[in-house]
Each structure stands twice: as C-alpha cells, then as structure tokens.
Amino acid sequence: MLNMGLVEDTPTGRLMLNVMSSFAEFERDMIVERTQEGKAIAKQNPDFKEGRPKLYGKKQIEHALHLLKSNSYKQVEEITGISKSTLIRAKREATKRVL
C-alpha cells in the first residue's frame, strides 16, 4: 500500500483522473440542464411559487401579532408554536407596511 504512489504519477493515472473529472463535469452539467428545464415548465403554471412554502399562514401570523400586544414573545411562542425570530420578523414587516 505504501509503495503504490499517487494515481496521477503515471500517464495512465493522469488519463484516468482526467476522464473521471470530465464525466463528473458532464453529469453536473446534465443535472443543471434538467433542473432549468423543470423550472421553465413549472413557471408556466400560474400558481407556481419558487422556493420553500411558508410554514405559517397570514391568519396565524396576524393572530400571533395580536397576542403579542398582551403577552411576551416567549408566551406567544408557547401558545402558537411560532418561533421568536419569526415573530420578530413578522412584527418588523407589519410595522413597515403601516409606515
């Protein structure tokens, strides 16, 4: 095992390394192409939204913001299951809409 040396020490080893890296690059390009085709097809649907779906609906967020008026973030988090960071972000966005 110790005297095997690196694969890239010989011409044959370098050839194999280049062939393998070329196949890896080709496969990656094929994946990107298929992904782009799928997105183009999906964008034809008028209901298509790219990215992850929202975890909480507008009504849930509004309810949580209403609860924040009389409760702490921790209490609202326990009641609704919505994390404190999400509540802070929603509150910040709600105040931006008001202004």
Automatic annotation (TrEMBL):
Kindly list any coiled-coil regions of this protein.
Answer: none
Q: Which InterPro entries match?
A: Cry35Ab1_HTH (IPR040652), Homeodomain-like_sf (IPR009057), Resolv_N (IPR006119), Resolvase-like_N_sf (IPR036162)
Q: Taxonomically, which superkingdom? A: Bacteria
Q: Which residues form the Resolvase/invertase-type recombinase catalytic domain?
A: 1-46
Note the Gene3D superfamilies from the entry: Homeodomain-like, Resolvase, N-terminal catalytic domain
Q: Name one GO molecular function term.
A: DNA strand exchange activity
Q: Which Pfam families match?
A: HTH_49, Resolvase
Q: Tell me the protein family, please.
A: Belongs to the site-specific recombinase resolvase family.
Protein's name in the database: DNA invertase Pin-like site-specific DNA recombinase
**According to the entry, what is the taxonomic lineage of the organism?**
Bacteria, Bacillati, Bacillota, Bacilli, Bacillales
